[in-house]
Amino acid sequence: MIDRIKKWARKLKGKIFVLYYAYKDPRTPWYAKVFAICVVAYAFSPVDLIPDFIPILGYLDDVILVPLGVAIALKMIPPDVVQENEEKAEQRIKNGKPKNWLAGSFIILLWIAAFLWVSLIIYRYMVD
């Protein structure tokens, strides 16, 4: 079962470039564009929301969150747009995956904010 999930995840992660081109297509609905942009930005981010060194949970985003986001986004986009952009995506895959440092920076800021929030709670608890 785990092998099936990994195959499914790999297949859907390959569709990220289809989303990348589909969100630029004017035939894609605005809500699908917004969702696709979020999925693509996170997938291309060099920083994970859940770091890989955390046992089990670290791979949750790679195996479940990103592929699930891709699957949902593909359902929102018209089939003819998806089909048309698959060829562009195949060419782009040959050139390698780009990095999205803007999304990576956002995730780093989320971790800093969470750390500061927890630190503040601990500080208030210790002072009282």
Q: In terms of topology, how is this protein built?
A:
Elements: H1 2-13, H2 16-22, H3 30-44, H4 60-76, H5 79-94, H6 101-127
Helix pairs in contact: 1-4, 2-3, 2-5, 3-4
3D structure, described in words:
With 128 residues, this protein is mainly alpha-helical. It has one domain (2-127). 73% of the residues lie in helices and 0% in strands. It has six helices and no strands. The protein has helices spanning 2-13, 16-22, 30-44, 60-76, 79-94, 101-127. The longest helix has 27 residues, at 101-127. The protein is elongated and about 60 Å long. Residues 32-68 form the DUF1232 domain. Keywords: Membrane, Transmembrane, Transmembrane helix. It is found in: Endomembrane system. Pfam families: DUF1232.
**Count of alpha/pi helices:** 6
**Amino- and carboxy-terminal Cα gap:** 50 Å
Q: Structural class of the helix and strand makeup?
A: mainly alpha
Q: Based on Cα principal axes, name the global outline.
A: elongated
What is the number of independent domains? 1
Low-confidence stretches: none
Order of helices and strands: HHHHHH
Strands, total number = 0
What does the main sheet amount to?
none
Percentage of β-strand residues: under 5%
The pLDDT mean sits at 80
**Taking Cα atoms only, what radius of gyration do you get, to the nearest Å?**
18 Å
Helix fraction, binned, reads over 70%
